[in-house]
Structures
1.
Amino acid sequence: MASNNLDQLYRTVIMDHYKNPRNKGSIEDGALTIDMNNPTCGDRIHLTLQVTDGVVQNAKFDGEGCSISMASASMMTQAVKGKKVEEALQLSTVFSEMMLGQEYDDSLDLGDIEALNGVSKFPARIKCATLAWKAMEKGISEEEK
Ligand code: FES
């Protein structure tokens, strides 16, 4: 696919997640709750995770932010739901590498996450894209304590 078409496709995927967020809301009862914000703009995410038997059974988010941060949160919840904790953390590592413009393991099924690939060219937006992922990592590390 020509790169312009690919950029256009990626933009469409990002805007779809922004306008029709997956897993929006909050899990009640016994869920891990993580609140994080992006200090540079004040945008915030409220993430709830249900982790049992080493598996992310459910993930939901709420918050306010730019299209990149909210689309990334939607994609993250979609990607980690039903995954083992180690797989969720592995995806997060791959996502960080992608954002830093480094080589990453593309043998994993990244699904819609791939659409955020271009963010690495805009350093100011990297924190927008990684906000939800950092929240997920924090939640899992609290669960493991
Ligand atoms: Fe605030 Fe992107 S501008 S998270």
2.
Amino acid sequence: MDKFIIKGGHPLRGTIKISGSKNAALPIIAGSLLADEPVTIHNIPRLQDIYTFNNVLRVVGAKVHFDDQNNVVHIDPTQVSYLEAPYDLVRKMRASFYMLGALVGKHGYAKVSLPGGCAWGPRPVDLHLKGMEAMGITISLDKGYVIAKAKETIKGGEFTLNPSSVGATVNLLLASVLRAEEFTIHNAAQEPDVVQLCNFLAERGANIDGIGTSTLTIRKTNSLSGGEVYNDPDRIELGTYMIAGAMYPGNDLTLTGCNAAHLGNFPEQLRETGTEVNIDGSIITVKAPEVLQPVSISTAIYPGFPTDLQAQWASMLTQASGESTVTDTVYFDRFSYVPELVRLGADMHNEQNTVKIIGKTPLTGASVMSTDLRASVSLVLAAMVSKNTSEVLRVYHLDRGYESLETKLNAVGAKISRIEAE
Ligand code: EPZ
């Protein structure tokens, strides 16, 4: 397993281009299976999760060509015939569960493995299954697999997501657009990833009211066309590099290819730390303050503070002058990075779903272990501001969600080397 050797104490100055969004790409790749013609998607990042999902589509019979040098994926869904997604692929990446909605939505049948848990705990799919039953899909469980069956036309109805769920909203959209007479999702997720999927489906011919709101009403359409689309830039990668820019006096980053509209109130919260944030169209500049102010946050569904940025924010707060807290109301146990940051010298501890942080603590390099995608990058952020050298193990977690991370950071002054496992 590859690891990073990171020499800390070097300011970051220069330009980083933001890649396409992983969490926006996966739903529209799944959505391509609903089309009657080939689909081409631009701005697809070179990430392990994309390669994994492309293989899941190949298993069911879709033709998938990923021109990864140009970040373009071509999908031909017209020969799909094997309506199953196996455990050994679904367990690698939870979003493969989107195959349930795509296959039953298009073909009336799907057999998909239940996803496993993940590094920070159980991640249920009960809302996906109850929502599908509510619209008239028959769901049964068989040795860890979900079997979904649906007639040509199903009655639809309505279903309330409690809590609001990105994945459940995606799966219910995929399952309903070609089958449900009229189906309303209440408390639907409003993340940009869901809005992009709704627009992708509507542009293909789907009938969806309420796009961008928490109430989506879908009415059956008989077929969806193929075509060409452009994937959103990655708002979590963007937020991660904005936090990197704030963490060390002298840092001055220019981030290009951004969509600031996807950040909600995050830029304002970062400004409250004393960080200079300027937004000019698709370019965002971030300049670190001499003294970082502690700003406590609590995650929430969009447009609240993203849970996918809470580990990175906590890492930054170790360098703020004062006490602060980070609370995750979406995932109550997403704090596996805390003991690793403590190894670097951070003064922080958990109390239920809150981490309490006392800054500013000088950090000193050590060996630390990646546990999941966003926790891993919080360790890289901390290692870059630590004295001496750190070793970040199991960086395959990072390769799942950050395109060319060390290349992008080294180009602006970081000192990261990747040691490939034998
Ligand atoms: C998506 O996961 C993202 N993944 C996650 O990003 C992100 O952290 C999460 O949304 C929240 O924003 C992708 O988009 C591929 P949820 P998802 O269903 O859809 C509960 C990353 O780092 N829930 O919105 O699985 C659940 O336990 C990944 O890129 C149920 O109770 O998240 C959680 O508390 C990590 N029952 C809350 O909803 C269900 O059936 C939100 O989960 C489904 C969810």
